[in-house]
């Protein structure tokens, strides 16, 4: 496929290597209890997860700020559940969520095995839309920071995937051409289409069980990367 030409691999972090849903659920389990907000975790997550997804899309499209994202996703969740929660409690919950999220370190199956396999052969990097102060902690606490030469986040870049500039910046920092680069990520819009738009090779990690497509190679488990590269 492109095995002979690839020198650099760019990974997304959340939903690709770092198991965001599992770690996020563990964080909410703790902070909802500690802030005495009377909701059942499963009921909360059932409402919160799709709302969070929608608000991240708005944030990615520059339609809301980071502050609005952090507040509104919680406000809409509690409003949808019919729960009366004060702004003060929401702001406290939002702060504690960001503060404690990176404490949890669950990775997708075979993450370490795949990084160990790839790191002697390729230069590895991260391109993430996550918040700078949180993403660094996730990588370090999960003990995978050492595998990556460059970590490009949207706050530092000033734009978010799928904006071409964040990919161009990543290529520049890695000193690599598009034809020699591979992007591995879970988001068709942000990772796959964004990278393809400037000529970067792509592999879609289908961690959300989305419909099949022919945009690029699809994998359902990270271990499949070993049969590609």
From TrEMBL:
Pfam families assigned: HAD_2
Gene3D superfamilies with a match to the protein in the record: HAD superfamily/HAD-like, Putative phosphatase, domain 2
Highest rank taxon of the organism: Bacteria
Signal peptide: none
Cross-referenced SUPFAM superfamilies: HAD-like
GO molecular function: 5'-nucleotidase activity
NCBIfam families documented for this protein: HAD-SF-IA-v1, HAD-SF-IA-v3, YjjG_YfnB
PANTHER family, per database record: PTHR47478, PYRIMIDINE 5'-NUCLEOTIDASE YJJG
Protein known as: Pyrimidine 5'-nucleotidase
């Amino acid at each position: 496929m492109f095995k002979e030409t690839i020198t650099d691999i760019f990974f997304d972090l959340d939903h690709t290597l770092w198991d965001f849903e599992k770690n996020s659920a563990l964080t909410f389990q703790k902070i909802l209890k500690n802030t005495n907000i009377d909701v059942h975790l499963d009921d909360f997550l059932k409402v919160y997860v799709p709302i969070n997804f929608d608000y991240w899309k708005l944030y990615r499209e520059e339609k809301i700020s980071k502050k609005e994202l952090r507040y509104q996703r919680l406000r809409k969740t509690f409003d949808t559940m019919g729960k009366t929660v004060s702004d003060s409690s929401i702001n406290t919950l939002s702060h504690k969520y960001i503060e404690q999220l990176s404490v949890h370190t669950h990775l997708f199956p075979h993450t370490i095995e795949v990084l160990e396999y790839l790191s002697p052969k390729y230069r590895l990097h991260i391109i993430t839309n996550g918040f700078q102060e949180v993403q660094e902690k996730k990588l370090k606490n999960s003990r995978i920071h050492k595998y990556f030469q460059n970590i490009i986040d949207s706050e530092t870049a000033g734009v978010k995937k799928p904006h071409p500039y964040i990919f161009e910046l990543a290529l520049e920092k890695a000193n690599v051409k598009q034809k020699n680069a591979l992007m591995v990520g879970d988001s068709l819009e942000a990772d796959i289409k964004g990278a393809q738009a400037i000529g970067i090779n792509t592999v879609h990690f289908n961690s959300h069980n989305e419909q099949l497509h022919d945009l690029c190679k699809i994998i359902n488990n990270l271990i499949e990367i070993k049969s590609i590269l």
